[in-house]
Known about the structure:
Blueprint: E1 2-12, E2 15-25, E3 30-34, H1 41-49, E4 56-63, E5 66-68, E6 77-80, H2 92-100, H3 109-116, H4 129-141, E7 147-151, H5 159-171, E8 177-181, E9 193-196
Parallel strand pairs: 3-8, 3-9, 6-7, 7-8
Antiparallel strand pairs: 1-2, 1-4, 4-5
Amino acid sequence: MKIEVENISKRFGRQAIIKQFSYTFLPNKKYVITGANGSGKSTLLKMISGFLSFESGDIRYTKENEPISRENINTYISFAAPYIFIPEDLTILEAIAFQKKFKAFSKSDAEIIAELNLVPNKKITELSSGMKQRLHLGLAFFTNTPVLLLDEPTSFFDKEWKLKFQDWVMEQQDKRMIILCSNDEEEYVQFPQRLRIT
């Protein structure tokens, strides 16, 4: 899948967050977007995902040269970030089942639970911040979408789980496009394409 971003801009009130940003993201490549806090990294990722609108410019999505409408892009993109909300009254298994209504997964429920080292019937409200982040990543990494968007993916992780994250990235080698927003060099050591926004 290819994503072409052309001169997009975004403002919040009078403040311009993104100014005429352009870039072409190619299939099965790994990209990291860096920049100072407040530079618009998360905003850019949300606009690419279709979650957030923009004032000007355009984002075009194509898969095998066939255009995909912005309204249907959610089927092709998985997004993990600490701020993404999952209903906290769900159990781990219920959260996985809910996600499976919208996207196909590459692993079984049992395999996902084992990878994340979580208790299947535990409610999300009972999880620590690190456990919730593991669930966010599992729901994104283990889908079959051609695009994976990650915003500060190892927030709340200890060293063990940061290494596990790198293993997951390695498993995705040349299988899908990954766009990562981060200022933590440990997170993007495997990412050769690097952009900095100001």
